């Protein structure tokens, strides 16, 4: 019996894409992709999600790629431009779940502690959650099991009574390993279908 629904935030409820900034800096998609694969890479960004400071992260990369100093500084200097807006279909589903009053609604997000306040000020619906666990604050992140366990313990959630929604399949597999039923998010339409199939909506 599901009584708690745990949402990821980035690219489930909030459109986040660093390319929005770098498309205004570089001339081609190839250059954008190369920079985000090899300079400000996903692995580098995940260290900030895990608690590393933005200043330290920026200095590390500038030391490695001095020719890209201005482009590296743009990553956090223009951070708000990476937030494309709410994913409206997902927010509508979230609203429907909230209004049903049947479920506790929690968020488990990989997000830097220093940039998460930008999202909080921008998206009112983040206030609808009964609790949000932010990786950068906890200095831990998905897909590590103890990060999921932290949420379960803090909010007294039983794994078998929770449903987890995330766009990253790696994070889905980790949740399933812990006995948490999970939906791999690909689109609001698919999420709506999956929730109806499970008789949650």
Question: In summary, what is this structure?
Answer:
This protein has 201 residues and is of the alpha/beta class.
Structure, explained:
By secondary structure, this protein is of the alpha/beta class. The protein contains 11 helices and 7 strands. Helix 4 runs antiparallel to helix 5. The longest helix has 13 residues, at 88-100.
- The helix-and-strand class reads alpha/beta
Instruction: For the record, give the distance between the C-alpha atoms at the N and C termini, rounded to a whole number.
Output: 14 Å
CATH class call of the largest domain = Alpha Beta
> Number of DSSP helices?
11
Placed side by side, the strands forming the largest sheet appear as 5-4-1-6-7
Strand content range = 5-15%
Instruction: Give the overall average pLDDT.
Output: 98
Estimated radius of gyration: 18 Å
The biggest sheet, with number of strands, parallel, antiparallel or mixed sense and barrel status, is:
5 strands, parallel
Tell me the domain tally. Answer: 2
Annotation, overall tally of beta strands: 7
Contiguous uncertain segments of 5+ residues: none
Features:
201 residues, alpha/beta, 5-stranded parallel beta sheet, two-stranded antiparallel ribbon, globular
Topology:
Blueprint: E1 4-7, E2 14-16, H1 19-22, H2 29-38, H3 42-49, H4 54-64, H5 69-77, E3 83-86, H6 88-100, E4 104-109, H7 116-122, E5 131-134, H8 135-138, H9 145-154, E6 162-166, H10 169-177, E7 181-184, H11 188-197
Parallel strand pairs: 1-4, 1-6, 4-5, 6-7
Antiparallel strand pairs: 2-3
Helix pairs in contact: 4-5, 6-11
């Amino acid at each position: 019996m599901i009584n708690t629904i745990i949402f990821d935030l980035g690219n489930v409820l909030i459109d986040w894409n660093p390319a929005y900034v770098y498309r205004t800096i570089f001339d081609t998609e190839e250059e954008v992709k190369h920079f985000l694969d090899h300079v400000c890479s996903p692995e580098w960004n995940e260290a900030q999600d895990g608690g590393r400071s933005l200043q330290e992260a920026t200095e590390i990369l500038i030391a490695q790629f001095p020719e890209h100093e201005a482009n590296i500084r743009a990553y956090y200097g223009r951070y708000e431009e990476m937030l494309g807006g709410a994913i409206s279909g997902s927010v509508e589903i979230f609203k429907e779940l909230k209004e049903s009053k049947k479920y506790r609604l929690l968020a488990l997000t990989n997000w830097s502690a220093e940039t998460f306040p930008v999202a909080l000020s921008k998206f009112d619906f983040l206030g609808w959650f009964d609790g949000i666990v932010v990786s950068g604050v906890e200095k831990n992140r998905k897909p590590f099991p103890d990060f999921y366990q932290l949420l379960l313990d803090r909010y007294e959630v039983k794994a078998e009574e929770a449903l987890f929604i995330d766009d990253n399949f790696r994070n889905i597999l980790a949740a399933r390993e812990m006995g948490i039923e999970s939906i791999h998010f690909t689109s609001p339409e698919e999420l709506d279908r999956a929730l109806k199939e499970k008789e949650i909506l």
